[in-house]
Design goal:
alpha/beta; elongated
């Protein structure tokens, strides 16, 4: 009875048979009642008019008795709401219920039952208004789908003979409930008058009082079919768009899962309600998983509807948080099931009292990663025949949803063109290009949450150990929740850039999504990040995989070029989302439909042909209206004057062939130039072919999802090879290939993680070219000591850089700020480690060396049957060809576009110079390191940590004299540097002869033996003494070998390095973080001032400007104090504004430069 909130029961009576009254013609229990719509309660729930809609004709309006092509019943328009009243007279509805022991008793019981059926009204405005409910006590012995069908047919056969009497009594619906075995749900079968009292299978197993609450009338634009489910609480329907042939590929196909969260003794208990909602949601997801396996990928845009019967108190923040939590927890499962919307209906109580209000929430999931929660209040419109309208319900940070001002009874729409494109992109294993804007917004939100958690002391590395106290856990959870609430309301704005003026320029546009007519789209994004809360601009370019499969044509190339030029012109970062099919391949369709073939023998085409031709009329038609170039070029055939032999096919449409390749070359050159001038990065989300693959590499920085990066598809290669060699494109260019060969910098498993990686990468990069670095408030003090201590045994260098937890779960700090280090190129050349980090909040590039041995795996090529996978060991602290290439590549990435200071933690014993490595060009890649450092335009710090070694060629390619204006070298007291390792130096410069001389000089016993031998004249004695000398030398040789090694090692100490001026200072490891933070701030201030001087006086070079700045520091007597120097150069030390003293110096330089220009003119 709680379900009938919209009804008012006028009377109810029942009669239970006993031994004295029981006979064959009477049921075990009989009841009847009258009820009418409750017109007093306001506001009415959305289901006020839906009860009759569930019972009214679900058939199509034109033919209410028609069935769909699949044999299922289509749903009708919603019921005429005039059924509620008949003039001024209230419509009284009559219902009767009866319980029988077995179904075969129904023909016996029904005649007497119908005799006692006394309705007030029979038909109102052509609609029957009464109901009959029958209950069968004997449970079914079988519960499979076949048994259910047999039961439905048997019950229909029993009821149909009474059809005329049912209609005469105004009975529009007969519901038969059959008990099931203990522990199972009853079986409900509904038989309708409009179907001749055949079963309405759509409502099978739905309880009669609750059927209307599922709002099945909203599926009336579809032909629906009930999908059997093991769980009777879940009602699942396979819906196909009405009015379209089954074979139509554009026919919309969806799955609708609908369920009720039952009323219980937990009214108003939000925790219990949430638990119940989650349980029902999981059950719906399981049912959908089974159904998707049956209907395949054809069902898209699926929908879950939950009606929550228990009432709850209205707390907007808590309700939105709960719904968002459900979305975050089950979002990926729903996305895999193509569920795009979750709809929840509940009645809420307000704190001030009053009647419960019907509220509806829709949770939209267009991308699979970003949830949009919209709330609506259901309000009855008294001026529109009591229709129920959805009004926007304010939620924190929410905007009015798409259903605001719409009627509750409006049907679910079929797929829009935008939704079709979304699912077309999904079939290509990527996200629709326009939805990436939402992904970037979500990534910025997550960046803010992570930033707030770090500032609050809740970081990923602070995960509480299992043994930690629960109070700490609660505090961390509370801080994490506060971090989410502190996210700004405005995270991102996007302005689309579209072609205009005959495709010669870009203009800003705010047109709706999916209106593009070019397979390339671009935006100017303004992201409000923790580093730039006032906003930073980036240019985002993306392929539209749904437009001609994402291929590159002239217009696509032009848009790409113009957007990239815009990023270079304004110095903005340029991001590219790649999912394409390479250069477009086309044919002149108008010629294809018109040409003919001149066969050598028309009777036997197998003999070949002479040429292709068109007739005179076709030739004239094809070239008609051509201004610049004709569609075809042809020559008359002498033997056939009405024929024109085709010599060239140009085509009316642009973008059929080589012009696409020309455009590919154009954007390849543009991307190469953009890498030199601005920050460029690519997210590979789908297959990227041909020119698309080259754009990925030319942009250098690459984040790859599962999409392959290939030059030629697997199928094409198999045709060339003449056999099935490659099974997929992923085998050729998936992450397992591209991440391990250095094309891909970061490998992720979904698009959101990829976008988050790009946004995090941008957090290290200035907002535009030559802008100050995005410095943040450090999460730990720059002055702290470094807890991690490098050892003389192999260790994980990442622990040295980023910190780690010890065996007791305690945090051991590393060199850089906590949780700031992000490694890139981690799958390639693993003897070198590179990435980005922060030192005191200042972003820097990092290159370090792995001290442990690693495995190099070279996969076998399936195209070569003789090839085998090879696994080799690469020693730590050695540059191999691939790791030298990686080092040079990383340095160039830091320099070009990112403009980061660079820290090199040098610990290389040299280059691997074996024959194989020399063949693999280790010398070339080692020289590349020098080239990359020589071109570096920001401060570079080379530091030898404890127990590090820098020897021979490794020192040569890192020496500060390569770039003296930018490079500095420092060393820990326990580090070493030299041409060779001490043992190698001893082998060359301290051989046995030298060792013997040292023994003779230092060992008294050996000296005495030599003295005695020199004085002895007895040959026998001399032989004995000589033997004793040799024996003594052999005994002493091992220890003196160590002495010599130690002696050679003392030539490689930092003390000697500093004395010879090859390093700037000796810096102890524990204090290195504090020292380098001060040094970094000073060098950045000097660098910025030097660049300011270059703008003031164009005659200056960088070296002269740096010399002038340091002269000013000398005059101010702060040159030897980094902190004091920074304070002198910048107002406040870190304000980014030059001090008054520096401004005065700049003015003098400017005056001098102007004077020099005037003198030169005169």
């Amino acid at each position: 009875r709680r379900a009938y909130r919209v009804y008012r029961v006028l009377h109810y009576r029942s009669h239970c048979a006993d031994a004295t009254t029981l006979d064959d013609e009477r049921p075990l229990l009989e009841a009847d009642w009258t009820h009418c719509f409750d017109t007093v309660q306001e506001p009415s729930p959305s289901t006020a008019g839906a009860a009759a809609a569930a019972d009214a004709a679900p058939g199509q309006a034109a033919d209410p008795n028609s069935r769909s092509r699949s044999g299922s019943l289509p749903l009708s328009e919603s019921v005429d709401r005039n059924l509620k009243t008949m003039g001024d007279e209230e419509v009284v509805r009559y219902g009767q219920a009866a319980v029988v022991r077995t179904a075969d008793r129904l023909p016996v019981v029904l005649p007497g039952l119908l005799t006692r059926y006394k309705p007030t009204h029979v038909r109102v405005k052509g609609q029957l208004v009464n109901v009959l409910a029958l209950f069968v006590m004997t449970p079914l012995d079988q519960v499979d789908a076949g048994a259910e069908q047999r039961w439905a047919a048997q019950l229909s056969a029993l009821l149909q003979p009474f059809g005329e009497r049912f209609s005469a009594l105004g009975i529009r619906r007969v519901t038969v409930t059959v008990l099931a075995e203990e522990g199972r749900f009853p079986h409900h079968y509904t038989f309708r008058e409009r179907l001749g009292f055949a079963e309405d299978s759509i409502y099978r197993h739905i309880e009669p009082p609750l059927a209307f609450q599922l709002e099945l009338n909203r599926l009336r634009l579809y032909d629906i079919e009930l999908v059997p489910t093991e769980n009777r609480r879940i009602h699942l329907y396979y819906a196909q768009e009405s009015g379209k042939p089954v074979s139509d590929p554009r026919r919309c196909r969806r799955l609708f899962a609908r369920a009720l969260v039952r009323q219980g003794d937990f009214q108003y208990d939000a925790r219990v309600i949430l638990s119940e909602v989650e349980r029902v949601l999981v059950e719906a997801i399981k049912a959908l998983e089974i159904a998707v396996g049956r209907y395949g990928a054809g069902a898209v845009n699926n929908h879950i509807f939950l009606l929550i019967q228990p009432e709850a108190f209205y707390q907007p923040e808590k309700i939105q948080r709960i719904i968002t939590w459900l979305g975050d927890r089950y979002g990926q499962r729903l996305w895999k099931l193509n569920v795009s919307e979750l709809e929840l209906v509940i009645r809420v109580k307000t704190p001030g009292g009053g009647p419960a209000l019907p509220v509806r929430f829709t949770v939209l999931n267009p991308t699979g990663y970003s949830w949009r929660v919209h709330g609506y209040l259901e309000v009855r419109n008294q001026m529109a025949d009591s229709e129920v309208t959805l009004c926007h319900l304010p939620l924190p940070g929410a905007v009015p949803g798409p259903l605001a001002s719409h009627l509750v009874s409006e049907p679910y729409p079929v797929l829009s063109e935008l939704q079709r494109r979304r699912y077309a992109a999904r079939r290509s294993q990527t996200t629709y290009c326009y939805d990436f804007v939402d992904l970037f917004r979500e990534a910025v939100r997550q960046q803010w949450i992570q930033h707030n958690e770090q500032q609050a002391g809740v970081t990923p590395s602070q995960a509480v150990p299992a043994a930690a106290a629960s109070s700490t856990t609660k505090k961390s959870a509370s801080s994490a929740a506060a971090a989410k609430e502190a996210v700004p309301a405005q995270l991102l704005t996007a302005t689309e850039l579209v072609l205009a003026e005959n495709d010669t320029q870009l203009v800003e546009s705010h047109r709706p999504q999916g209106r593009n007519d070019v397979g390339m789209v671009a935006w100017r994004l303004r992201m409000f990040t923790p580093e730039y809360p006032q906003g930073r601009d980036v240019i985002l370019i993306a392929n539209d995989i749904t437009h001609q499969i994402g291929s590159f044509g002239p217009r696509e190339d032009q848009l790409f070029k113009l957007a990239s030029e815009l990023s270079r012109r304004e110095g903005l970062p340029r991001l590219y989302v790649a999912a394409n099919s390479g250069a477009r391949i086309g044919l002149a369709q108008e010629v294809k439909e018109s040409y003919r073939v001149a066969w050598k023998d028309p009777e036997c085409p197998q003999k070949g042909f002479q040429y292709l031709y068109v007739d005179a009329d076709t030739f004239k038609r094809l070239n008609e209206g051509a201004v610049d170039t004709p569609s075809v070029v042809a020559k008359p055939v002498e033997a056939h004057r009405d024929r024109y032999e085709l010599t060239d096919i140009i085509g009316r449409q642009d973008g059929l062939g080589v012009e696409n390749l020309r455009g590919s070359g154009m954007i390849a050159g543009e991307t190469s130039l953009a890498y030199q001038e601005v920050f460029t990065a690519t997210l590979v989300t789908g297959r990227t072919v041909g020119i698309g693959a080259y754009l990925v590499r030319l942009g250098q920085r690459t984040v790859q999802n599962e999409g392959p990066i290939i030059l030629t598809g697997a199928s094409a290669l198999n045709k060339v090879l003449g056999r099935e060699v490659y099974s997929s494109n992923g085998q050729l260019g998936g992450p397992q290939i591209m991440y391990t060969n250095g094309v891909t910098h970061l490998s992720v498993h979904d698009e959101l993680k990829g976008v988050c990686a790009l946004v995090r990468w941008l957090s290290y990069v200035p907002c535009k070219r030559d802008a100050p670095l995005p410095t943040t408030t450090p999460v730990d003090p720059p002055t702290r000591e470094i807890a991690f201590r490098p050892s003389d045994h192999p260790y994980d260098v990442r622990h040295m850089l980023a910190g780690c937890r010890d065996e007791d779960g305690q945090w051991v700090s590393g060199f850089f700020d906590r949780d700031s280090f992000t490694e890139t190129l981690g799958g390639w050349a693993r003897t070198t480690v590179c990435g980005r980090a922060r030192l005191g909040g200042v972003p820097v590039g990092v290159v370090a060396v792995e001290t442990r041995s690693v495995e190099l795996v070279v996969p076998a090529d399936p195209a070569n049957q003789d090839s085998q996978q090879t696994v080799s060991q690469q020693a730590g602290q050695v540059w191999f060809p691939n790791s030298a290439f990686k080092t040079a590549q990383a340095i160039r990435d830091f320099n070009k576009g990112e403009q980061l200071p660079l820290f090199v933690f040098a610990n290389w014993r040299g280059f691997s110079g074996g024959m194989s490595d020399m063949f693999d060009e280790v010398l070339k890649f080692g020289a590349d390191i020098v080239d990359a450092l020589r071109e570096y335009r920001r401060p570079v710090f080379v530091y030898l940590p404890p127990h590090a070694e820098l020897r021979g060629g490794a020192w040569a390619v890192l020496d500060p004299t390569i770039n003296p204006e930018q490079m500095e070298m420092y060393a820990d007291p326990l580090s070493r540097g030299g041409v060779l390792e001490p043992s190698g130096t001893v082998e060359i410069k301290y051989r046995r002869r030298d060792l013997v001389q040292t023994m003779q000089r230092l060992d008294p016993k050996l000296a005495a033996l030599h003295a005695e031998l020199a004085a002895c004249t007895d040959q026998t004695r001399r032989a004995e003494l000589s033997a004793a000398v040799l024996e003594r030398e052999d005994d002493l040789l091992p220890i003196y070998q160590q002495v010599a090694t130690r002696f050679a090692d003392l030539h490689d100490t930092p003390g000697r390095m500093f004395a010879k001026g090859v390093i700037s200072a000796v810096v102890e490891w524990a204090q290195a973080r504090h020292f380098f933070y001060g040094r970094l701030c000073r060098r950045l201030a000097e660098d910025r001032l030097c660049r300011q001087l270059l703008g003031v006086d164009p005659q200056l070079c960088y070296a002269a400007a740096l010399k002038l700045v340091r002269q000013w520091l000398q005059e101010a007597r702060v040159a030897h104090d980094d902190d004091a120097s920074t304070q002198y150069l910048l107002q406040g030390g870190d304000s980014g504004v030059f001090s008054a003293a520096v401004q005065e110096h700049l003015n003098l330089v400017h005056q001098s430069a102007v004077g020099a220009q005037v003198r030169q003119i005169l």
